[in-house]
Design a protein that fits this description.
Elements: H1 2-20, H2 36-46, H3 65-79, H4 84-95, H5 109-136, H6 147-158
């Protein structure tokens, strides 16, 4: 009983360990702006920008050198007086829309946004047609053996 309890406790600890660690932000102390409001804006914006090295991490979470450069560039733009939209537009114009963690739905991107639901709908239609076709199909009944086949079968069985 004691080993079972120990095993359950160990399993619980292992299962919950990923939730116990807080995300480690990569923003270094020398990057942080003196103005808390400006720093808060920079942090909010940097959470929406993709690290071009790590791919699915924001530049706020990434330790890559390019992410650091993007964080510094963003803070420079905000310090220069850019609005949030102007700073984001500057970075998107410079690095492309791939830098956004949530790309826009305008332009040609609507095709990418619609592709998933469209493929699901097509799959449901094809699957439904297949299931309905199988339900309507009649099973072939076994035809009785002809007299020649019965005689041949009798001869084989008697051997």
């Amino acid at each position: 009983m004691k080993t079972l309890f120990s095993a359950l406790c160990l399993s619980l600890i292992i299962a919950l360990s990923p939730f116990a660690t807080a995300p480690a932000w990569a923003v270094e102390p020398d990057e942080i702006l003196d103005d808390p409001a400006l720093e808060a804006r920079a942090r909010d914006l940097s959470k929406g920008l993709r690290c071009l090295v790590c791919r699915n991490e924001s530049i706020d979470e990434s330790n890559a050198d390019l992410a650091r450069d993007l964080r510094i560039l963003l803070r420079e733009r905000l310090t220069a007086g850019d609005t949030d939209d102007e700073a984001m537009d500057f970075i998107v114009n410079r690095f492309g829309e791939f830098v956004l963690l949530r790309p826009t739905t305008g332009g040609a991107n609507w095709l990418l946004w619609a592709a998933g639901p469209a493929m699901l709908l097509i799959g449901l239609i094809v699957g439904g047609g297949f299931v309905r076709g199988r339900a309507r199909a009649t099973t072939k009944s076994e035809d009785a053996l002809s007299t020649e086949e019965q005689a041949r079968l009798k001869a084989i069985l008697e051997e």
